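Worked example 3 (structure in, sequence out).
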């Protein structure tokens, strides 16, 4: 059975969000409203990646952080006028959408280990356990890595401190 995990992001204006994510190559797949005066729930996709955008109260938390792997982070950085940063696992940028949601975008370095989606089932389970332990405790740190290190750190590095 094919499965896909799709994050839901809180937005205040779905049309504006669709336009902003369009700059990253996403296109609207569907839009749902219970009636014309109800909030929108919109699905956007880009080459196998999917995000749902919701105007509904309680559907998602503002200030969400996603990590998005791409083939050419330099092109996106140029389009948005931001500098690319080098991390041990990738060259990456971080953008903030009009609603304050953050999306970290990276291109893997050729010598970087595979992401957890490419790792074996056992390694993925270990990575999930470690990610839950670090959950946001470092959000106040302003060392350039912050709480995002667990999002992109290879599985072996995340478990080496145990």
């Amino acid at each position: 059975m094919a499965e896909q995990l799709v994050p839901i992001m809180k937005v205040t204006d779905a049309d504006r969000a669709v336009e902003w994510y369009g700059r990253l190559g996403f296109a609207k797949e569907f839009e749902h409203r219970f009636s014309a005066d109800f909030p929108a729930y919109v699905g956007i996709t880009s080459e196998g990646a999917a995000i749902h955008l919701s105007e509904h109260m309680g559907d998602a938390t503002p200030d969400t952080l996603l990590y998005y792997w791409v083939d050419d982070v330099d092109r996106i950085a140029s389009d948005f006028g931001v500098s690319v940063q080098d991390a041990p696992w990738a060259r990456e940028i971080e953008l903030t959408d009009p609603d304050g949601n953050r999306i970290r975008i990276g291109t893997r370095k050729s010598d970087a280990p595979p992401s957890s989606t490419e790792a074996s089932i056992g390694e993925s389970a270990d990575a999930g356990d470690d990610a839950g332990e670090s959950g946001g405790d470092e959000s106040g740190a302003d060392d350039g890595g912050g709480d995002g290190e667990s999002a992109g750190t290879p599985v072996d590095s995340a478990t080496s401190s145990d």
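Notes: The first strand starts at residue 8 and ends at 10. The helical segments are 14-22, 73-80, 121-134, 149-152, 155-159.
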